[in-house]
């Protein structure tokens, strides 16, 4: 467990970066520190590996004050992923990853073997190991950064806005990757970001910090969206929080219904006479798009006759995706797919809303029960 | 002209003298280059780490560089008690110039190392000295070598001034040629000085390429 015990940081010029802050992060979970710039989140994180010493208070790792360790040794036991990856430009990717094992006195061959395993683990091909960081894309550099932090198999991982410098698509991929890795590794992760969406996606618990290093709220993401502690948190979690909260509601009780479907390559004879939209699937039953009502099909059905479909809702994931699939589909029917992307059925926005209402009334009923 | 040059090199006396002076020139210019760099590096590090020392160190460097070289050659024996006509005076003087010239670029080179890279090194568990040697210094090399190239040219030309006190490498060809109104000798001195500067510069460029293989690595970016 990571524990901050009324830590305070005041710089020589009088600025207070962190104000009497106490909180703890559970072992084996991802805890996110989120807040606008100047809220002291990075300062707080750097107290853990003693890159910044608190003016008063203490930071404890598994019950031991970090000041009892030699700073350099302590740091070798705490993984650190920095903004912009912070890779060493003069070392190959493999040697970058091998940094901490080498510092701890591991033999070069051993360290490199371990580094190669880690590259694989973060999803990078082995031949990338011989390149220099400048020869990698931003997303790849971030992966190397994560691999380097994991090289010594530290129980604690500090991540300082690690994905802020990459584009949104790559960032989403890296976030998913982190969640997958965390499932395998179960590290105690302290993650700093200014992006509330990232915080809510990754954090099992989220600490919202306010300018001047005040802890505004420390809660599970669902609770943060449902009951923001004050105006600051309300404005920081932003609009759409009711909608975003649907991310935490699973859709198992949603019952997809059947709709008319045809396949790419079908002839006009196969296409049912209809007044509504028809969903078009490919040979693997994956949705390709929609055929508008009354659309004429000459000969074989091809992709260019279709209207693009909306987002796909993967069975059993959150209601947010289910609602979005219905709202984004031209037909108003959200397409539900299984884990392999195969068509399962369709849902309407009405069905999703009914489920939400049903849930609300059941919670209220429980609430008033004696 | 060519005939006269051929005659100059045909004379074993001149040939031998030119070679000796060339050797002396190399010795007198490169020894201070190394010494000056070795002096500038720790001073630059000091200025980088302690902001209060920055002003005085850079100020002292500027002052040293404004002292005329001939004056310095003559002053050093007075201050250090070295023999008046010893090559050591030239070496010390030029080492001081080199250090003064390198001071600002060394500081710039050390500061050119990106902050997130040094922070990452600290967070990985490098102790300060090892971090300097293993991370900061290698990354400062491109800027450092550009500065050393500049200082090497300056040194190679300054050595000639030492000829006025009798220790000046190829500069000896200038004083000798001037006294005897022998143009060819002066010309040989100029050309050899230029060639020497060129060769040393090429060696330094080669050294940089050898030491910074990463800076030449071609961009082959591909998304996974």
Automatic annotation (TrEMBL), chain A:
- The ABC transporter domain extends over 2-237
Q: Which residues form a coiled coil?
A: none
Is the Transport keyword given for this protein?
Answer: yes
Quick one: signal sequence residues?
Answer: none
Top-level taxon: Bacteria
Q: Which GO terms describe its molecular function?
A: ABC-type quaternary ammonium compound transporting activity; ATP binding; ATP hydrolysis activity
**What sort of enzyme, by top EC class, is this?**
translocase
The EC number of this protein is 7.6.2.9
Which key words tag this protein in UniProt?
Answer: ATP-binding, Nucleotide-binding, Transport
Q: Which family does it belong to?
A: Belongs to the ABC transporter superfamily.
The name of this protein is: ABC-type quaternary amine transporter
From TrEMBL, chain B:
Q: Which Pfam families match?
A: BPD_transp_1
- Where does this chain mainly localize? membrane
Provide a GO biological process annotation: glycine betaine transport
Read off the PROSITE patterns from this record. Answer: ABC_TM1 (PS50928)
Domain ABC transmembrane type-1 residues, every copy: 22-204
Tell me where it resides: Cell membrane; Membrane
Q: Where are the transmembrane segments?
A: 26-44, 56-78, 84-103, 132-150, 156-174, 186-207
Q: Which InterPro entries match?
A: ABC_transp_perm/SBD, MetI-like, MetI-like_sf
- Can the keyword Lipid biosynthesis be found in this entry's annotation? no
Topology relative to the lipid bilayer, per the entry, is: Multi-pass membrane protein
Q: Which domain of life is it from?
A: Bacteria
Which is a Gene Ontology cellular component entry for this protein? plasma membrane
The record's keywords, sorted A to Z, are: Membrane, Transmembrane, Transmembrane helix, Transport
Keyword Transport applies = yes
The family line of this record is:
Belongs to the binding-protein-dependent transport system permease family.
- Name of the protein in its database record: Osmoprotectant transport system permease protein
């Amino acid at each position: 467990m990571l524990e901050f015990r009324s830590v305070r940081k005041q710089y020589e010029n009088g600025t207070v970066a962190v104000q009497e802050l106490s909180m703890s992060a559970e072992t084996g979970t991802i805890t996110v520190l989120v807040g606008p710039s100047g809220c002291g989140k990075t300062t707080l994180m750097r107290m853990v590996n003693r890159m910044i010493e608190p003016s008063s208070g203490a930071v404890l790792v598994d019950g031991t004050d970090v000041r009892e360790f030699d700073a350099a040794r302590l740091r070798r036991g705490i993984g650190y992923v920095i903004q912009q990856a912070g890779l060493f430009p003069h070392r190959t990717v493999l040697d970058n990853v091998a940094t901490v094992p080498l510092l701890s006195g591991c033999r070069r061959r051993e360290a490199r073997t371990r580094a190669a395993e880690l590259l694989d683990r973060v999803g990078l091909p082995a031949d990338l190991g011989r390149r220099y960081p400048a020869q990698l894309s931003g997303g790849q550099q971030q992966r190397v950064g994560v691999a380097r932090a994991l090289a010594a198999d530290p129980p604690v991982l500090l991540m300082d806005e690690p994905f802020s410098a990459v584009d949104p698509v790559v960032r989403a991929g890296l976030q998913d990757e982190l969640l997958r890795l965390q499932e395998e590794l179960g590290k105690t992760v302290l993650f700093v970001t200014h992006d509330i969406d990232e915080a809510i996606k990754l954090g099992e618990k989220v600490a919202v910090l306010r300018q001047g290093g005040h802890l505004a709220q420390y809660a599970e993401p669902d609770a943060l969206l449902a009951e923001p502690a004050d105006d600051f948190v309300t404005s920081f979690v932003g609009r759409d929080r009711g909608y975003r909260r649907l991310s935490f509601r699973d859709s198992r009780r949603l019952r997809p219904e059947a709709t008319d479907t045809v396949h790419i390559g079908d002839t006009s004879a196969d296409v049912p006479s209809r007044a509504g939209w028809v969903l078009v699937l490919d040979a693997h039953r994956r949705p390709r798009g929609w055929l508008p009502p009354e659309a004429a099909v000459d000969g074989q059905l091809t992709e260019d006759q279709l209207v693009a479909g909306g987002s796909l809702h993967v069975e059993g994931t959150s209601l947010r995706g289910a609602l979005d699939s219905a709202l984004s589909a031209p037909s108003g029917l959200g397409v539900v797919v299984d884990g392999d992307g195969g068509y399962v059925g369709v849902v309407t926005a009405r069905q999703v809303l009914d489920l939400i209402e049903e849930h609300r009334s059941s919670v209220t009923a429980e609430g008033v029960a004696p | 002209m060519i005939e006269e040059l051929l005659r100059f090199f045909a004379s074993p006396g001149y040939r031998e003298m030119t070679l000796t002076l060339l050797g002396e020139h190399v010795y007198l210019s490169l020894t201070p280059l190394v010494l000056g760099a070795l002096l500038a590096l720790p001073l630059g590090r000091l200025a980088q780490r302690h902001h209060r020392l920055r002003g005085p160190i850079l100020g002292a460097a500027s002052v040293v560089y404004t002292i005329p070289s001939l004056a310095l050659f003559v002053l050093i024996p007075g201050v250090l008690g070295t023999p008046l006509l010893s090559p050591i005076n030239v070496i010390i003087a030029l080492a001081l110039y080199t250090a003064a010239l390198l001071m600002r670029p060394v500081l710039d080179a050390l500061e050119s190392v990106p902050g997130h890279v040094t922070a990452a090194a600290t967070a990985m568990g490098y102790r300060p000295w090892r971090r300097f040697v293993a991370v900061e210094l290698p990354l400062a090399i491109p800027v450092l070598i550009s500065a050393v190239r500049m200082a090497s040219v300056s040194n190679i030309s300054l050595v000639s001034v030492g000829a006025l006190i009798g220790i000046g490498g190829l500069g000896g060809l200038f004083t000798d040629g001037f006294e005897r109104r022998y143009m060819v000798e002066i010309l040989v001195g100029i050309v050899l000085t230029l060639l020497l500067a060129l060769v040393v510069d090429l060696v330094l460029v080669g050294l940089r390429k050898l030491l910074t293989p990463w800076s030449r690595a071609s961009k082959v970016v591909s998304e996974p």
